[in-house]
Amino acid sequence: MSAKITTPPKTLLEGAEYISAAATDIERTWRKHGWLPKEEREAELKAQQTVKRMKTKERNDAGS
Question: Are residues 21 and 29 in contact, defined by beta-carbon separation less than 8 angstroms?
């Protein structure tokens, strides 16, 4: 089986910015692609659940 050779969509000469590995901010790169730290994801879920619970409570109070 032969190895597949891929080429980047842009070369550095075509305007892609070069950033050395030492200067790369891993967290910023991951966030750019949709990743969130576990603590932030859990806090977001908790906030969504609280809003949902409050809306349900408002509906129940309005019906009483």
Answer: no
